[in-house]
Write a structure and sequence with these properties.
single chain, mainly alpha, 83% helix, 0% strand
């Protein structure tokens, strides 16, 4: 049972502990100190629902339907390419780099942005429903719940640690040059992920 739990925990961790659109958004909201708990909880809840759906059944569909996974991958290429372009623009424009500039976003706008950066990114479906779901679907029925618990534990720890741990980095991110470097790195990484998805489709 412990082995199955760790399997789920480590697999999920390997999927989400990487710089991506969602993680960057959570990090920035933590730095801005805006709706931090809500952002972390929404990201965790979406992971919980999508991973549960994948492990408890939908993963079997993707294991026998490779075309569905390819369509999601192509959507991911478009989304990540666009997000990378937006990050590059932020790195070029100094007016959007400091935490104190501009008025704070409304609570519901942040909620909508969190849902968008999570659910409109096909990469989250590839991670939770296709990859994790397919692995979980291959386990015995009695092991799936333990595997799923390991997955959601990793998601919970990661998003809340990322959101609240970001405050420790506040002095560093008060400097505009740090935002330039971060957004520049984000653009490169988003395009690299998009390229890897595209290559996986055309192979």
């Amino acid at each position: 049972m412990i082995h199955t739990y760790l399997h789920g925990f480590l697999l999920m961790a390997s999927m989400i502990i990487a710089i991506g659109a969602q993680n960057v958004f959570v990090l920035k909201q933590g730095l801005l100190k805006q709706a931090v708990f809500t952002v972390a909880f929404i990201c965790f809840l979406c992971d919980f629902l999508l991973t549960s759906a994948g492990v408890l059944g939908i993963g079997e569909i993707f294991s026998i339907s490779p075309n569905a996974a390819k369509i999601l991958s192509l959507c991911g290429v478009i989304f990540l390419s666009y997000y990378g372009f937006c990050a590059l623009l932020r790195a070029i424009k100094p007016t959007s780099l400091t935490i104190t500039q501009g008025k704070k976003s409304s609570y519901w706008k942040i909620v909508a942005q969190t849902l968008a950066v999570t659910l409109l990114n096909p990469h989250v479906y590839l991670d939770t429903m296709v990859i994790v779901g397919t692995v979980g679907a291959k386990l015995a029925a009695t092991q799936r719940w333990t595997f799923l618990f390991g997955c959601i534990s990793a998601s919970f720890l990661w998003f809340f640690c990322l959101a609240y741990g970001a405050r420790l980095l506040l002095p560093l991110f008060n400097r505009p040059i740090t935002w330039r470097i971060l957004d520049g790195a984000i653009a490169i990484i988003m395009w690299a992920i998009a390229l890897s998805l595209l290559l996986s489709v055309i192979k």
